[in-house]
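Bench log. Compound arrived from synthesis this morning; before running ITC I wanted a structural hypothesis for how S-adenosylmethionine sits in the protein. Inputs:
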Amino acid sequence: MTTFGDKRSRGYDKRAAVLLGGLYRLIATDIDALAKTDSQVLDAGTGPGKLLAELRSQRPDLRLHGVDLSPQMIDLAERKRTGGHVDFSVGDVGALPYPDDSFDVVVSSLSMHEWPAVNRAISELARVLRPGGVVRIYDFRFVRPAAALTALRHYFVAGTVRREIVRPRRHPIGLFARFTAHTA
Ligand SMILES: C[S@@+](CC[C@H](N)C(=O)[O-])C[C@H]1O[C@@H](n2cnc3c(N)ncnc32)[C@H](O)[C@@H]1O
């Protein structure tokens, strides 16, 4: 069950606009560097869709999809949608509502710390990625690094799995970590 109801989703949407713009720009720049023209990109735990809005402004060619457990978050994301190739769905990262091999890139920001079963969720991210696909998960740096790395090495090509600390511009300390892994 989602913990992001109506009031909490609206509060998050307002705070994220003030506090997280630098992180969304950093992630969108990362995805821009690795996504080929017209790639299918999924944002898992998209919340109010702010990362996809940033990505759409940097890369209007991408086919963007956002999924979130909270219908209220998806409602906020849909209300702000201003054209482009973007769609949103309510769904659980542990049972994604997409067929196998649907996406070239899967990204997730500040959501993994809420996933009840990281292993199950990461197996789903691998399932919906096409061969040669890439996953990028961003979260607070102290969130479940061992569990995430173990699952990524199990479901992705082990030698491609990396964890790095990232620091958006003007953030005084490295609060966030980025996990990367590739499918075969
Ligand atoms: C802190 S918000 C981050 C939202 C957005 N990614 C961002 O960076 O602004 C965490 C989001 O993860 C979503 N979430 C938590 N557990 C989830 C799950 N099992 N499946 C899909 N979304 C989930 C929540 O509903 C919430 O919208």
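What the model suggests: The radius of gyration is 15 Å. The pocket of S-adenosylmethionine is lined by residues 2, 4, 16, 20, 45-47, 50-51, 68-70, 73, 92-94, 109-111, 114-115 (CB under 6 Å).
ITC booked for Thursday regardless.
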